[in-house]
Amino acid sequence: MAKDTKMEPLTGKDLVKKVKELDHLSREEKAKECGYYTITKNGAPRVNMMKFLNALIEAEGIQLDNTQSDANGRGGRSASYRITVQSNGNLLIGSAYTKQMGLKPGDEFEISLGRKHIRLKQINGTDSEADDGE
C-alpha cells in the first residue's frame, strides 16, 4: 500500500484474507495495511486498533452483542459465559456458545467431572471446558 494514499478499510472476507497474508506483521501494522488508520494534523498515521479488531471479529462471524439479532426482529440473550444449575438438576449450554464453537446437532462429547469443573471432550477431537462458576 502506498504511504501517501488512504484506502477504504477492508471488511468481511477481504479483511480476513489480508490479515492471514500479513501474518508476519504486528497487529498495528496489520491494522494499518488493512486501512484502519487516520492521518493526524502532523501528517503522521494513527492506527485505529478498536475499529480494526471489531471489524475482524465481525468478519469472523463472532457476535459480541445482540444488536444484529435485534435488527432482524429476533431477540435473545447475549452470552454471559455463566450458567446456573436448573431446578431439575440440568446444566443448559445455550445456542450462543454452540454457534460460537461451530457445533452442529449430533456432535458428541465425553464428560469428565472434576471437583469444581466439567470438561467436555469432543469425540471427534477438540477439547472444551465448562466452568461451574468457581
From TrEMBL:
One of its GO terms (cellular component) is protein-DNA complex. One of its GO terms (molecular function) is transcription cis-regulatory region binding. InterPro entries: AbrB-like (IPR027360), SpoVT-AbrB_dom (IPR007159). The keyword 4Fe-4S does not apply. PROSITE patterns: SPOVT_ABRB. Residues 80-125 form the SpoVT-AbrB domain. This is AbrB family transcriptional regulator.
